[in-house]
Amino acid sequence: MAYVLGIDIGGTHVTAAASVLGDGVWKRPTPVRLRGDSDEAPAVLHVDPEGALQVGDPAERGPVLRPGVVAREFAGRIGADAPVLLRGERWSPQTLTAIVARRVTDLVRGRESEPPVRVVLAHPATFTAHHVAALRAALADVGLAAEPLPEPVLAAEGHAARGGADARALAVLAVGGTSYEASVVTRTNPITYAVRASRTGAQQLGGADLDEVLAQHAYDALRLQIAPLAGDPDRHLRILHDLRAEARYTREQLSHADDAEIILPLHPGETRLTVTRATLETLLRPLLDHTAATLARLVAVAGVPPHHLGGVLLTGGTAHTPLLTELVAAHLPGVTPFPPGGTTLVAEGAAAVAAQLAAGLHDAPPDTGRRGGGVWEPEPGQEPSVLPAPVSEPRIQLPDAPPRPPVRISTPDLPGRRRTRRAQGMNAGAAALVLAVGALAPGIPIG
């Protein structure tokens, strides 16, 4: 069955979505299971003991003590001159990003027994032509024909593909694992959005920073129990690794529970710390308020009056923090923040655009990029508060995809955990999917 693929590689995780062709119509995009019962996999590359390059996070099975064997957070560094070192070999960030995209494509191709018709890959809206050109070249080097497009545009397309209300302009706040980006997009025709303005804050913040704040709070509270173990550096490092992992898990639980426990193994025994949502919000409020304020300032300079905005899209794992929605609403009164779109909204939008391209709705990939610097500037003589003229044609609505049998991947499950008092914790998911890179196109060196 013909299908198209959308891929979103963030600072910490990668997600994908596919749209299939049925009865001559491209169906509504659905997320792709990348590992076990989870729609996301770690955007991490590492060198295994045999010297092969793998996709997956070995730290999920314990801390990695050897330096230079793991690459993280490379997608946001595309176009940078500084290479990433993996066991003495230099890799460009765009090459590592392309490898992850290729392996995701190969994974889906193996399930479907045929390659995708089109592939669309998300990238930050603040990327310049230099960044996009570097990414295109890296994708070509690994033999992947993919179209890079800005993340906020794809978020808007994903919102539309899910049946969201039609809007001429949307604000988008993406808060990922390692960074955040505020954008305003406007519709240029019935099926295309374009970036009108985009900005990242001077202070880069992401979910990892929020986890670090909670981990520090827990470390201070449990200092008496942890201090006697500081004499063993390896053991102390393992405890710190476990504490950061617990902080992330607990923060996710507090998105839908009033309190949760940080459970820290001390080998032997364990210690527990109860964290309430009120405590977490007190810790995170200064950081999250910074991102919401950045979005409000961007809207002010983008030339889109708030009453012209159809709403605010919140994307990324951190978008599920209830406090973020509250702060965005406070900084943009009268503008409705939509419920968080989950981690796959951008990937679904990428698949929707890939379907548009496959259907011939664009003569060429849509020009959705930004101009010049980090904020859109109007053409000379153009009034910045005037949006493009309304378009009367209705947006094409994609039908739901037909039911498909679940894909099972043989990976060990993490043990179940009792974490929350008023709400059950989310499944921890399966262990990290390890994708070998040995099948990549010739010419890609494997460590």
Automatic annotation (TrEMBL):
Pfam families: HSP70 (PF00012). Gene3D superfamilies: 3.30.420.40, Actin, Chain A, domain 4. Keywords: ATP-binding, Chaperone, Nucleotide-binding. The keyword Chaperone applies. Residues 362-423 are annotated as: Disordered. One of its GO terms (molecular function) is ATP binding. This is Molecular chaperone DnaK (HSP70). It comes from Catenuloplanes indicus.
